[in-house]
Design goal:
By secondary structure, this protein is of the alpha+beta class. Helix content is 17%, strand content 32%.
Amino acid sequence: MAPYESDDATGAARDEDLPTGRRKAARYVVPVAVVGVAAATIGLVPALADSGDPDLPKITAQQLIDKIAKSDVQQLSGTVKVSTDLGLPDLGGLESGLMSGAARGDGDGSAADPRSKLTELVSGTHTLRVATDGPDRQKLSLLESGSEYSLIHDGKDVWGYDSKSNEVHHSATAGSGGQHRAEQPPATPKGFADEALKAVDDTTSVTVDGTAQVAGRDAYKLLIKPRQSGTTVGAISIAVDAKTGLPLKFTLTPRSGGAAVLDAGFTQVSFARPAASTFDFTPPKGAKITEEKDGGKGRAPEHAPKGGEGLADGLDGATVLGKGWTSVATFDTGSQGGVPSGDQGGALGGFLGSLGDQVSGKFGEGTVFSTRLVNALITDDGKVYAGAVTKDALVKAADAGK
């Protein structure tokens, strides 16, 4: 069960265990969120810096987690800053293009399809405007230089609009199904916080780490730290609105130190009901409209990538090795030969090989591709091992799984 330690800053006593329902095998969901998109990460942005340490009533970690769980914000609007610093090599924007292309493989090729568009959050710093009015109305706008992408959920309709290409993506939902809680738009602190809390178990330390002000709101800071060695995750900090219990800021720092890998937070927030016109959308004249073909994936903002799925989800035959923060997902691609070398794959093969480190062990030989958070080993016999773990931990997992 999850231990809740005393917090030196607030004098909180050790808390009781979390419900067993929070114990999950997929502790790697947070780093996957980063790689998958909502997956959005930032080095700390000055605009998000704490502007003071408010004097708030003392609270324990368990009480603060309960406060998050009971939070039921139905109306909200604001601006979120999101930035990613995975430590990927500068490929001149190629990495975003590759991610977008991969996402498009599950979509229909429309520039307005959220499954491809929101992958842009995987690198750099971005500004989002978000709005929510109950479970059936949400809007997210990704502001870009000279253009804007909007994802609007209004009742049974979900619209994606890319002003740069003047393309529209439309799909229909099955309705709210009577759900009570309002879904927050993707890539917000709440989405990341929910997944981080699912990772809490006896391999995790959770404490209250003082107070802060975020977007002009008084907040408590919840600190989550892995107890295990071998993980690349250093700590996760969640700033929680003292009044509503809504996470206002989420910061994930790597064990290696330096800038945050993921830091997403409100710079402005209001809990007043957004104007009804916020969620109105009519396709502009001359826009190319693409209708969702399968009526399934990615049809509503709550289904857009936000890091809510485990690494093994959607991977045929994937299994999980290990426990807690050092869990490693593995699956067999069925492809022999591993990463092509310069001789085998030409210039591209040589380039890909140069990005990885050659390793060997009981499993055979392979190549490890590393970021500041998520690492992956591709073996020469076509197996993949991936997780928020070090290179050595991947090799050990591959040896154990042999």
